[in-house]
Amino acid sequence: MDDFNSDSDSEYASYWRDWFISSRGNEYFCVIDEDYLTDRFNLTGLNADVQYYQYALDLVTDVFDLDCDDDMREQIEKSARHLYGLVHARYITTTRGLAKMLDKYKKGDFGKCPRVLCNAHPLLPTGMSDLPGCASVKLYCSKCEDLYNPKSSRHANIDGAYFGTSFTNILFQVYPALVPEKTKERYSPKVFGFKVHASAALERWQDERRVEMCRRLRALGVGAVFPGDGEDLGGEEEMDEDEDVAEGVLE
């Protein structure tokens, strides 16, 4: 609210979306087109989730002219931020919204994967629930297919519902060329240069399951999923002898 109080009312009311996007902690958001915000069809059902809905919408669309005290305006400002987040979750699944988030993704605005073997692969924001107030935003790595917490506490406090659970999946369906090649690299614990038995057995079991999956996909006419799949399929018999050991470790 410091940024809100530091600007004049007229300047603030004229550039609310620009102010919101440029505020620290809101780097994950993209600018929602005005025509999308003014189309009531895109806002269906949100009036039940947002307090002072009409005032909040007027503030977001830069037509707010209510003369109210500071406490009331602060409540409306809070509702406006919440409304923008809920609309944002819908907007980023549209063609225009996907293009804007793709641009931020390519620039690395959402950060890089902390997993060493992912080689700083860019992340995408995602929610664990479509309902507000359930969980904060997480960062998804499409290379290791895992979720991570944002490094900044400002980002960690963003509601995951402002990005939803479908955005990342829709993005990779619309832009399939962005799906990275899956890596088989993984950390292997060792003691004086020798692999730890339990971890080694588990790794062999995982390799066997991967080869089995690749064989089924090939039978269905699906191409290689991992680099070098063709080479590994020929040596699957060598791993049969480790199956019982690996299953014993997992149990």
3D structure, described in words:
The protein is mostly helical and 251 residues long. It is built from twelve helices and five strands. The chain has a three-stranded antiparallel beta sheet, with no helix packed on it. A two-stranded antiparallel ribbon has the order 4-5. Helix 5 crosses helix 6 and helix 10 packs across helix 12. The N terminus and C terminus are likely disordered.
Features:
mainly alpha; three-stranded antiparallel sheet; single chain; 5 strands; elongated; 251 residues; disordered N terminus; 12 helices; two-stranded antiparallel sheet; disordered C terminus
Topology:
Blueprint: H1 2-6, H2 9-14, H3 16-22, H4 34-37, H5 53-60, H6 70-91, H7 95-107, E1 123-126, E2 138-141, E3 146-148, H8 153-156, H9 167-174, E4 190-191, E5 194-195, H10 197-219, H11 229-233, H12 243-250
Antiparallel strand pairs: 1-2, 2-3, 4-5
Short structural description:
The protein contains twelve helices and five strands. By secondary structure, it is mainly α.
Percentage of residues in DSSP E strands: 5-15%
For the biggest sheet, the summary is: 3 strands, antiparallel
Instruction: Give the tally of β-strands.
Output: 5
* Spatial order of the strands forming the largest sheet: 1-2-3
Written as H for each helix and E for each strand, in order along the chain, the element string is HHHHHHHEEEHHEEHHH
Number of separate helices? 12
Radius of gyration: 24 Å
- Structural category is mainly alpha
Mean pLDDT over the residues: 83
Helix content: 40-55%
> Which of globular, elongated, flat, extended, rod-shaped describes the shape?
elongated
Beginning-to-end CA distance, first to last residue: 54 Å
Task: State the low-pLDDT regions, or none.
Answer: 1-14, 234-251
